[in-house]
Amino acid sequence: MGVEIRVEGLTKSFGRQVIWQDVSLTLPAGEISVLLGPSGTGKSVFLKSLVGLLKPDRGNIWVGDRNLPYLSERELYETRKLFGVLFQDGALFGSMNLFDNIAFPLREHTNKTEAEIKRIVMEKMEMVGLIGAERKLPGEISGGMKKRAGLARALVLEPEILLVDEPDSGLDPVRTAYLNQLIVDLNAQINATFLIVTHDINTARTVPDNIGLLFRRELVMFGPREMLLSSEEPVVRQFLNARRVGPIGMSEEKDVSELEAEAKMGADPGRLPPIPPQLMPSDGRIRPSQHPPGAWLRAHGIQPPPGSFIDEMGRNWIEEWPRLVAAQGGTVGAAAGPGQVPPPGPPPQGAPPAGGPHR
């Protein structure tokens, strides 16, 4: 089971430049969360802070019962073993073949025999579809294969938390779709806590259980996927719909005159698009952390946009869900049984009052 991460009042700056301030959120154990934001808003800095590579100016990062900024070097070293990290470019050693790249953390941090290391490495390579490529060098493989090799390396120490930085960077849409499916399948298998930093809107709309958005040095909103995909918050709506109308400009944020000009012209932010079904594991089973489609919206009295939760084959996943749950014995982790809605729990960070509009 993954580990909960609780961030409280986190602030980070470099000299006089404030990257973000007073960021608070909770990454639920075992769930997939996505962090979005325009370029330059400090998403990668946030990941580095979570793993203890950068120390915040103030605030707390609770990893289970350990507060990262206040740990000794030895305690921090041990806590980092809970993490696996997939870097933007894979960060593979160019002089090592894929087998040795993936085996590196095991040789560096454990006393396992070479036979044990081989078993673990081959198991992880099979998980990411790289069997047969063990002896290839990073320079001999595609960008997608490098990402998968980096992912296999991030998994060899059996992490309880997986941080994924821009998995779609440098990949075409088809490879990105395959990688998204792999991430969902891995979460179903290992049940770790995932945090993905991405700019890919399709990834944000279909993969995670939770979404957060950084903008203007603040966390604008963080909460269940359905909360953000139905939000009327201007910056959230603009970013998730990839539109020019809204607070985000070419240089991160628009000035007052630009916003006033848009308002005078009656610029239309557009209708909210349908909320797509969440990506399911390849084998069709429900992930332990997955919630019924539409459950958050129903619990908060919000009507989804027309056409929501209908896939490309015309199936309505609100109607399909009870059959999926029944096929798996009627109980699936966080998922509700047929016809049931799980308790909404405490309001997520940035959530409006129950039943209220997202302004």
Features:
alpha/beta; Rossmann fold; six-stranded mixed sheet; four-stranded antiparallel sheet; disordered C terminus; ATP-binding; ATP binding; P-loop_NTPase; transport
Characterization of this structure:
The chain has 12 helices and 12 strands. With 359 residues, it is of the alpha/beta class. The chain has a domain at 5-233: Rossmann fold (3-Layer(aba) Sandwich). Strands 6-7-8-3-9-10 form a 6-stranded mixed β-sheet. It has a 4-stranded antiparallel β-sheet with strand order 2-1-4-5, with helices on one face. A two-stranded antiparallel sheet has the order 11-12. Helix 3 crosses helix 4, helix 3 packs parallel to helix 5 (143-155) and helix 4 (114-127) crosses helix 5 (143-155). The chain is globular and about 55 Å long.
Can you describe this structure in just a few lines?
It comes from Thermomonospora curvata (strain ATCC 19995 / DSM 43183 / JCM 3096 / KCTC 9072 / NBRC 15933 / NCIMB 10081 / Henssen B9). The chain has 359 residues and is α/β, with parallel strands linked by helices. 32% of the residues lie in helices and 18% in strands.
